[in-house]
Amino acid sequence: MVHPDRKGTVRPSDPREVLWARPPVHRRPPGFRRALWARVLAGGLALGGLGCDDDGPGLVVQPPAPDTGCTVSILRSFEVYFVIDVSQSMEEFLGAVQEQLFQFANSFPERDANENRVFVDYYVLAFVNDWAFFPRGAARMTSPLAVRDAIGQAIRVTSDGSNLNDDSLNIDQPEQQGETGPENLLDALAQVYARTPASDRVLVVVATDADFKDQGDTLTPNIRVETSFEDAKTGLAGIDARVYAFTDGEVEGFDRNFEGRAPFEVEELFDLTDLADDSNTVGQILSQIAVESACEEDREAPSAP
Predict the structure, then answer these.
(1) Comparing 39 with 262, which gets the higher pLDDT?
(2) CB-based contacts of 91: which residues, under 8 Å, 6+ apart?
(3) pLDDT tens digit string along 209-224?
(4) For the chain, what is the largest distance between any 2 Cα atoms, rounded to a whole number of angstroms?
(5) What is the DSSP string of 132-200?
(6) SS3 at position 241
(7) What is the DSSP string of 40-89?
(8) pTM for this entry
């Protein structure tokens, strides 16, 4: 087994072969969750579809693939939190996510084993130096169209390099000329477990290409991080959240240890650098996340001999 802080990133010539920055840390036996990405590469989900003609990225409208093997959910309710870095460098990847939200939502089965309707609630938690739920004042959403619009709203707020809650710039030094430094991921993650989710399963989809500060550190303009790295790890574990992370392969706390401490435990870790211009593969990954979450039981890793 590779130690969690060893990256070992492989960069194949085919951009569809999404990269593992490190083997994910799982509750399941080693190698089991790699079946998710193997299914994506096998082309289990068809590509293409219809786009929307309104402003913003079009949603790819597509029914679930008939060969996913998932038509009945083992659970009835889900909460999905998109915890996303909305600094300017993330716009291309987030655009790909917006295009594929319908495919993601449509991959959850409609019914559970008791013929009850399956419910999926969505939340968008945007962050730069500060954080905010979108849409403002109405965090909970049930439609992928609403999620697409919420992500778009957050992107527009920070398109000039500003923070989310005022006009201050989310940069550390003026000479950065609009480039973002470390962000406030931890306070954003804290909002997930602070809600004490009551659903059967909580999914957290993190997307960032920036390092993040720890509790007590200060970001501009005098924004103090309130949540510690260890508290965020403990809080997510306390609600049994399944965390899926998209990074650029260089984020401390995901791709390597965080200040000498083990990184976040994640279900899967993907390299967003190679996915930013590959919307179809982003859609396949999101669909398989939905299928795995709805249709696969947790499996405990075998005890050490």
Answers:
(1) 262
(2) 155, 159
(3) 999 999 999 998 789 9
(4) 59
(5) EEESTT---B--HHHHHHHHHHHHHHTTTSB-SSSS-BS-SSGGGTT---SB-HHHHHHHHHHT---SS
(6) coil
(7) HHTT-S----B---SSSSPP-B-PPPTTSS-SEES-SEEEEEEEEE-SGG
(8) 0.79
User: What's the confidence (pLDDT) of residue 146?
Assistant: 98
Measured distance CA(159)–CA(264) in Å, rounded: 29
Q: Is 280 helix (H, G, I), strand (E, B) or coil?
A: helix
How far is the C-alpha of 261 from the C-alpha of 80, rounded, in Å? Answer: 27
Q: What is the Cα–Cα distance from 131 to 192, expressed in whole angstroms?
A: 12
**In this structure, are residues 38 and 303 in contact, taking their beta carbons and an 8 Å threshold?**
no
Q: Note the pLDDT tens digit of each residue in 164-200.
A: 998 888 865 444 454 558 999 999 999 999 999 999 9
For residue 28, give the nearest of 305, 288, 304, 300 by alpha carbon.
300
User: So what's the pLDDT on residue 50?
Assistant: 35
CA atoms 272, 128, 131, 261: torsion sign: positive
Distance CA 186, CA 193 (A): 11
SS3 293: helix
Contact 147, 122 (CB under 8 A): yes
Cα separation, 122 vs 6, in Å, equals: 33
Q: For the chain, give the mean pLDDT.
A: 80
Relative to beta strand 201-207, strand 119-127 is unpaired
Over its C-alpha atoms, the chain yields an Rg (Å, rounded) of 18
DSSP-based three-state secondary structure for 285:
helix
Write down the pLDDT at residue 1: 35
Distance CA 100, CA 280 (A): 8
Give the 3-state secondary structure of residue 271: strand
Q: List Cβ neighbours of 289 (8 Å cut-off, separation of 6 or more).
A: 36, 104, 203, 205, 244, 268
Residue with tokens 């930013």: 276
